From TrEMBL:
Biased composition (Basic residues): 18-42
Residue numbers spanned by region Disordered: 1-53
Organism whose genome encodes this protein: Grammatophora oceanica
Source species taxonomy: Eukaryota, Sar, Stramenopiles, Ochrophyta, Bacillariophyta
Name of this chain's protein: Uncharacterized protein
Basic and acidic residues compositional bias, start-end: 43-53
């Protein structure tokens, strides 16, 4: 019986050792899996950095293009001014961006110029941004050509940027035309009404233009006005046409009890 007890104790201890080993193996596998996942994540994050290290010129170009995109997105009006600035810079002009009234635009230009440091764009001790020629054979279009080349490399062109904002501006103009036309119609109607009825008014009465101003102020204050009291039917009809063109609605007025 003692032998049986001893053998059962040995079996149980052996089983416990096996269980401990299996637990160690499973935890080790889990650690290995976690480490592999971490390696995959880090490799994904570093992929762009490795590409940049392999091709520093491409990395520089993309950095410049990113700054240009941010600038044009926030300040599309600079799309026409920046090429001129680059030409003047290569001609020896220095730009002190601190003199700009638009702080946001100045910061955007500073980011662009800073990204072009490898192209010879530097910041002087006085605070101005200037360009140092890398050598002989460069002309005033040097920076502009390089910028266009960078944009072309990433599938963009200065013309495409200009066209994009040009289309947006054209769209805004088209949307503004109906409003401008409506204002013009109201203005013409008002001038016609004033010129037609002013001569027929009594000398002691107020000018019709002042009456119109008073009526418009009342409407802007939320009051309703009635033209029924006007003795001149033609004047009343003309003013109703004017108010209709201005977008006002005619409704029946109810007398208070």
């Amino acid at each position: 019986d003692d032998d049986d007890d001893d053998s059962s104790l040995m079996d149980s201890s052996e089983d416990s050792r096996r269980r401990r080993k299996s637990r160690k193996k499973s935890s080790k596998k889990k650690k290995d899996k976690k480490q592999k996942k971490k390696k995959k994540r880090s490799s994904g994050k570093d992929a762009a950095k490795e590409d940049a290290e392999k091709d520093p010129i491409a990395a520089r170009n993309y950095a410049v293009v990113d700054r240009l995109y941010d600038l044009m997105h926030e300040h599309p009006g600079l799309a026409s001014e920046l090429p001129i600035m680059l030409i003047r810079m290569t001609s020896g002009t220095s730009f002190d961006l601190r003199q700009m009234s638009d702080v946001s635009a100045a910061q955007g230009l500073q980011n662009v110029f800073a990204s072009m440091s490898s192209l010879g764009v530097t910041k002087e001790s006085s605070g101005g941004w200037t360009w140092q020629s890398p050598g002989a054979g460069t002309d005033e279009l040097f920076l502009l050509r390089l910028t266009r080349s960078m944009l072309n490399q990433v599938g963009l062109t200065m013309e495409a940027v200009d066209d994009y904002y040009g289309m947006n501006n054209e769209k805004q103009l088209q949307e503004a035309k109906p409003t401008a036309n409506a204002k013009s119609a109201v203005q013409n109607e008002t001038l016609g009404l004033l010129s037609k009825f002013k001569p027929s008014m009594d000398k002691d009465s107020n000018p019709l233009s002042l009456e119109l101003i008073a009526l418009c102020r009342m409407i802007l204050e939320g009051q309703s006005i009635s033209l029924e009291g006007l003795p001149d039917d033609n004047l009343r009809d003309a003013m109703e046409d004017l108010f209709a063109k201005a977008g006002l609605e005619k409704s029946e007025m109810v007398d208070d009890d």
